[in-house]
Amino acid sequence: MNEEQRKQQAQIIPIDNNIERIKNTSSDEMISKYFQTSYEPQSPDIKKARKRRNEDVQIHYDFAIPEDVATIGKGKKFLIRTYGCQMNEHDTEVMAGILTEMGYEPTSDTNDADIILLNTCAIRENAENKVFGEIGHLKPLKLEKPDLIIGVCGCMSQEESVVDRILKKHQHIDLIFGTHNIHRLPQLVKEALFGKEMIVEVWSKEGDVIENLPKVRKGKIKAWVNIMYGCDKFCTYCIVPMTRGKERSRRPQDIIQEVRHLVAQGYQEVTLLGQNVNAYGKDFEDIEYGLGDLMNAIHKIDIPRVRFTTSHPRDFDDRLIEVLAQGGNLLDHIHLPVQSGSSEILKKMNRKYTREDYLELVRKIRKAIPNVTLTTDIIVGFPNETEEQFEETMTLMEEVGFEAAYTYIYSPREGTPAARKKDDVPESVKKQRLYRLNELVNKQSAESMKTYKGKTVKVLVEGESKKDPDVLAGYTEKNKLVNFKGPRSSIGKIVEVEITEAKTWSLDGVMVENTVEVN
Ligand code: SAM
Ligand code: SF4
What pLDDT digit, counting tens, does each position of 48-83 carry? Predict the structure, then answer.
């Protein structure tokens, strides 16, 4: 990316004397300046979604740490606290990679850190509250260590109201940057260090694709691989299309190269990541290439396990089902968020499928992959959800036979259409519904676990169990957690384990001797 493009897109507003400036400027004035060229954080709407598809996405292969900051972190330490989804976890790996290339070393001790980044999540209100709690906790440390750099990044920093609140109430924050600005971390750290000013950089453009970013991955066994960014679905409850920008896919060759590189490093499993991976390739103008084609290409690569998340039912096409049915390294576990079992609620959510459409998709998937395990996400207490509509979610849960589900109470997000709706469902009723749903989820999970008793499963061994270092832990192909006694030498390998005990959310077992399958 050249300097001219940077100038056009970036918005760095250095504040010489932050407190003085805040005193002298009305907050509305300040906020409108910060966001004057940024993506308007207003209500998402479908017309805008269609329009933004036509915008140019540029792919940049020229990422490099500028020479003047290449050793800026020598002898210093960084800590990144991550909130939210896998996308954020992976962004943290990228930021860790950039900081490491700048000479910083990681630490898990806040007192030891020279730079602390909070990589935030905006999906529900309680996620945001946690971050504001942590911002408050860090204030005494900043007062004690004025040279400490504290940054807020991730989804919350894309929200105008959040930046407003930090500017007004948390002036000990040095740096705020958006999800499209991660690759600018070297320059931003430099600005924060030498200027000692509050830096706010939230880009107007909804994001390009930046390749060749360094990464420090969390482990050596499983790896995340982004295949696309952003979301154009505009579900009426969801903030993601605003915090992550428009859908844009990485080129297939760049993804395949990354997976090959991971194989060479000995990784055993990759999870292809995106907010809506089934829309992969829809933004390509020069080639017809979708998720099915990509999975087919990765199927041929010598990596034992391939997963993908998250799938939107609407774009789950026949080609993908046909490819997944080949099995091999394409695992027979599909996470397929349904959100609600009521067609009326699904319509209000703008999910663009009905209960019947979803069941038809499940039927097709089961026909092609008879052993498939399905898991899902469900929101209860969407505005004005009736008892009958909630019951439809309960019956769908049973009808599909989901083996696990992430369940949430609807959380209104400012700027989304659903948040403007009047809601006649009391919070106590929503909590009761969540409780009832969770009882059912637990029951179905426990039932599915019981079917494993006495069977032998393949487990990718990840390490020692958190509770007992003599016990190893790993996951089956269907993503079931297994705890078992076995040699430490099996860590990082796929072994066979005979299941002796089934619990609600995990299995216990014994390793079958001499079964190490992959070295
Ligand atoms: N793209 C995925 C999809 O369409 O299913 C989901 C991504 S979102 C990060 C993860 C989950 O958070 C969603 O599936 C939904 O269940 C939940 N979620 C999103 N917005 C929410 C809200 N406002 N209140 C409660 N749960 C929400
Ligand atoms: Fe949010 Fe997923 Fe809907 Fe996109 S598809 S708006 S990420 S829930």
Answer: 544 555 567 889 999 999 999 999 999 999 999 999
Tokens for 192, please give them: 């924060």
| Range from 70-84, 122-136, 387-401, 460-474 carrying the lowest mean pLDDT | 460-474
Architecture of domain 455-511: Beta Barrel (2.40)
Nearest to 407 by CA among 430, 382, 380, 384: 380
Mean pLDDT of the residues in the chain: 88
In Å, what is the CA distance from 85 to each residue of 122, 269, 277?
10, 18, 14
Contact by Cβ (8 Å): 326, 299: yes
H-type alpha helices, 251-290: 252-264
Domain limits, the chain: 46-201, 220-451, 455-511
What per-residue confidence (pLDDT) applies to 15? 29
CB 303 within 8 A of CB 259: yes
Residue nearest to atom 20 of ligand 1 (CA): 238
And the tokens for 258? 């990354």
Cα(243)–Cα(39) distance, rounded to whole angstroms?
Answer: 9
CB-ligand 1 contact for 123 (6 Å cutoff): yes
Among the bound ligands, name the one nearest to the CA of residue 234.
2
Distance CA 58, CA 61 (A): 10
Pocket test for ligand 1, best of 238, 291, 334 (most atoms within 8 A of CB): 238
The CATH number, out of the four listed (3.40.50.12160, 3.30.70.120, 2.40.420.20, 3.30.160.70), of the domain defined by the range 46-201: 3.40.50.12160
- Convert the pLDDT of each residue in 282-314 to its tens digit: 999 999 999 999 999 999 999 999 999 999 999
390 and 380 Cβ atoms separated by less than 8 Å: yes
H/E stretch holding 28 reads: helix 27-34
- pLDDT of 5 reads 34
pLDDT tens, position by position, 19-57: 333 334 343 443 333 333 233 333 333 345 445 555 678
Which alpha helices (DSSP H) does 369-459 contain, by range? 387-400, 427-450
- Strand order of the β-sheet with 404-409 is 333-335, 373-380, 404-409
pLDDT at 466: 79
Q: Would you list which residues are annotated within the binding site? A: 85, 121, 155, 231, 235, 238
Residues 486 and 469: beta-carbon distance below 8 Å = no
If one residue of 379, 393, 437 were mutated to test the ligand 1 pocket, choosing by the most ligand atoms within 8 A of its CB, it would be 379
- Edge-first strand order for the sheet with 199-201 is 105-106, 77-82, 115-120, 149-154, 175-177, 199-201
Superfamily of domain 220-451: tm_1862 like domain (3.80.30.20)
